[in-house]
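Dear support,

Our group has been running a series of protein-ligand predictions, and this particular one with FE2/S2 (inorganic) cluster is the one our PI (initials K.S.) wants archived with full inputs and outputs. We had some confusion internally about which version of the output was final, so please treat the block below as the authoritative record. The input we submitted was:
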Amino acid sequence: MRPDPIEVRLLVNGVERTATVEPRTSLADCLRDKLRLTGTHLGCEHGVCGACTVIVDGHAVRGCLMLAAQAEGCAITTVEGLSPPEGLSPLQASFRKHHALQCGFCTPGMLTTAHALLTHEPDADAYRIREVLSGNLCRCTGYVPIIEAVLDARTHYRK
Ligand code: FES
Ligand code: FES
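Confirmed final output from the archive:
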Protein backbone atom coordinates (compact mmCIF):
# COMPACT_ATOMS: atom_id res chain seq x y z
CA MET A 1 0.00 0.00 0.00
CA ARG A 2 1.32 3.43 -0.91
CA PRO A 3 1.89 5.78 2.02
CA ASP A 4 -0.35 8.81 2.20
CA PRO A 5 0.92 12.06 0.65
CA ILE A 6 2.31 14.61 3.05
CA GLU A 7 2.33 18.40 3.03
CA VAL A 8 5.67 20.17 3.33
CA ARG A 9 6.27 23.84 4.08
CA LEU A 10 9.35 25.42 2.61
CA LEU A 11 10.72 28.95 2.44
CA VAL A 12 11.79 29.07 -1.19
CA ASN A 13 13.63 32.11 -2.46
CA GLY A 14 12.14 34.11 0.39
CA VAL A 15 8.55 33.00 -0.21
CA GLU A 16 6.63 30.52 1.94
CA ARG A 17 5.48 27.64 -0.20
CA THR A 18 3.61 24.44 0.53
CA ALA A 19 3.52 21.30 -1.56
CA THR A 20 1.80 17.95 -1.28
CA VAL A 21 4.27 15.20 -2.04
CA GLU A 22 4.84 11.53 -1.48
CA PRO A 23 7.12 10.80 1.48
CA ARG A 24 9.77 9.53 -0.95
CA THR A 25 9.75 12.67 -3.14
CA SER A 26 13.14 14.31 -3.44
CA LEU A 27 13.60 18.00 -2.82
CA ALA A 28 14.65 18.46 -6.46
CA ASP A 29 11.49 16.76 -7.75
CA CYS A 30 9.38 18.83 -5.36
CA LEU A 31 10.96 22.06 -6.58
CA ARG A 32 10.64 21.14 -10.24
CA ASP A 33 7.36 19.27 -10.39
CA LYS A 34 5.33 20.85 -7.60
CA LEU A 35 6.70 24.39 -7.41
CA ARG A 36 7.61 24.71 -11.12
CA LEU A 37 11.12 25.90 -10.35
CA THR A 38 12.71 24.07 -13.24
CA GLY A 39 16.02 25.92 -13.04
CA THR A 40 17.14 23.13 -10.74
CA HIS A 41 18.31 20.43 -13.13
CA LEU A 42 18.44 16.68 -12.69
CA GLY A 43 21.27 14.74 -14.26
CA CYS A 44 22.37 11.57 -12.55
CA GLU A 45 19.75 11.59 -9.77
CA HIS A 46 22.14 9.80 -7.44
CA GLY A 47 24.42 12.43 -6.04
CA VAL A 48 27.25 12.44 -8.55
CA CYS A 49 26.82 15.29 -11.02
CA GLY A 50 25.79 18.29 -8.89
CA ALA A 51 23.29 19.61 -11.43
CA CYS A 52 20.55 19.57 -8.78
CA THR A 53 22.44 21.65 -6.21
CA VAL A 54 20.35 24.10 -4.22
CA ILE A 55 21.20 26.07 -1.09
CA VAL A 56 19.48 24.84 2.08
CA ASP A 57 19.92 26.99 5.18
CA GLY A 58 23.09 28.41 3.66
CA HIS A 59 24.69 25.16 2.57
CA ALA A 60 24.97 23.72 -0.93
CA VAL A 61 22.96 20.50 -0.98
CA ARG A 62 22.22 17.91 -3.65
CA GLY A 63 18.49 18.21 -4.23
CA CYS A 64 18.28 14.66 -5.55
CA LEU A 65 19.60 13.19 -2.32
CA MET A 66 17.46 15.16 0.12
CA LEU A 67 13.83 14.37 0.65
CA ALA A 68 11.37 17.22 0.43
CA ALA A 69 10.14 16.12 3.85
CA GLN A 70 13.64 16.63 5.28
CA ALA A 71 13.55 20.24 4.09
CA GLU A 72 10.42 21.05 6.08
CA GLY A 73 10.79 24.57 7.48
CA CYS A 74 14.15 25.18 5.75
CA ALA A 75 15.17 28.25 3.76
CA ILE A 76 15.96 27.16 0.23
CA THR A 77 17.58 29.17 -2.52
CA THR A 78 17.37 27.88 -6.06
CA VAL A 79 19.11 29.32 -9.09
CA GLU A 80 16.01 31.43 -9.71
CA GLY A 81 16.53 33.02 -6.31
CA LEU A 82 20.05 34.18 -7.11
CA SER A 83 18.84 36.74 -9.64
CA PRO A 84 17.66 40.20 -8.65
CA PRO A 85 14.19 41.18 -9.95
CA GLU A 86 15.80 42.50 -13.10
CA GLY A 87 18.98 41.34 -14.72
CA LEU A 88 21.68 39.04 -13.44
CA SER A 89 23.47 38.69 -10.15
CA PRO A 90 27.17 39.63 -10.20
CA LEU A 91 28.05 35.93 -10.22
CA GLN A 92 25.73 35.26 -13.14
CA ALA A 93 27.10 38.30 -14.97
CA SER A 94 30.60 36.99 -14.42
CA PHE A 95 29.64 33.65 -15.96
CA ARG A 96 28.37 35.54 -19.00
CA LYS A 97 31.47 37.72 -19.18
CA HIS A 98 33.79 34.71 -19.08
CA HIS A 99 31.67 32.52 -21.37
CA ALA A 100 31.47 30.04 -18.52
CA LEU A 101 28.72 27.93 -20.04
CA GLN A 102 28.09 26.06 -23.22
CA CYS A 103 24.90 23.97 -23.18
CA GLY A 104 24.09 25.37 -19.72
CA PHE A 105 22.86 22.14 -18.20
CA CYS A 106 25.35 22.20 -15.34
CA THR A 107 25.13 25.96 -14.87
CA PRO A 108 22.43 26.16 -12.15
CA GLY A 109 24.39 23.77 -9.97
CA MET A 110 27.64 25.57 -10.66
CA LEU A 111 26.06 28.88 -9.72
CA THR A 112 24.41 27.69 -6.51
CA THR A 113 27.56 25.85 -5.41
CA ALA A 114 29.78 28.86 -6.15
CA HIS A 115 27.32 31.24 -4.49
CA ALA A 116 27.28 29.20 -1.29
CA LEU A 117 31.08 29.01 -1.33
CA LEU A 118 31.68 32.73 -1.88
CA THR A 119 29.05 33.68 0.69
CA HIS A 120 31.06 31.82 3.34
CA GLU A 121 34.54 32.22 1.81
CA PRO A 122 34.74 35.36 -0.35
CA ASP A 123 38.52 35.07 -0.47
CA ALA A 124 38.54 31.49 -1.74
CA ASP A 125 41.51 30.98 -4.06
CA ALA A 126 41.55 29.06 -7.32
CA TYR A 127 42.57 25.85 -5.55
CA ARG A 128 39.67 26.10 -3.10
CA ILE A 129 37.18 26.95 -5.85
CA ARG A 130 38.36 23.96 -7.88
CA GLU A 131 38.11 21.76 -4.81
CA VAL A 132 34.51 22.77 -4.08
CA LEU A 133 33.36 22.75 -7.70
CA SER A 134 34.95 19.34 -8.26
CA GLY A 135 31.60 17.92 -7.16
CA ASN A 136 29.88 19.51 -10.14
CA LEU A 137 30.33 17.85 -13.51
CA CYS A 138 30.25 19.77 -16.78
CA ARG A 139 29.74 17.49 -19.75
CA CYS A 140 30.86 20.31 -22.02
CA THR A 141 34.10 20.42 -19.98
CA GLY A 142 34.31 24.21 -19.81
CA TYR A 143 35.93 24.17 -16.39
CA VAL A 144 38.60 26.84 -16.94
CA PRO A 145 36.22 29.73 -17.70
CA ILE A 146 33.95 28.61 -14.84
CA ILE A 147 36.84 28.94 -12.37
CA GLU A 148 37.79 32.30 -13.88
CA ALA A 149 34.20 33.54 -13.55
CA VAL A 150 34.01 32.55 -9.89
CA LEU A 151 37.39 34.12 -9.14
CA ASP A 152 36.28 37.34 -10.81
CA ALA A 153 33.00 37.46 -8.85
CA ARG A 154 34.68 37.26 -5.44
CA THR A 155 34.89 41.01 -5.06
CA HIS A 156 31.09 41.25 -4.96
CA TYR A 157 30.92 38.96 -1.92
CA ARG A 158 33.41 40.88 0.19
CA LYS A 159 31.77 43.12 2.79
S1 FES B 1 21.08 15.02 -10.22
FE1 FES B 1 21.65 15.26 -8.14
S2 FES B 1 23.79 14.98 -8.12
FE2 FES B 1 23.21 14.55 -10.18
S1 FES C 1 27.88 23.79 -20.00
FE1 FES C 1 27.15 21.90 -20.79
S2 FES C 1 27.25 20.56 -19.09
FE2 FES C 1 28.29 22.31 -18.43
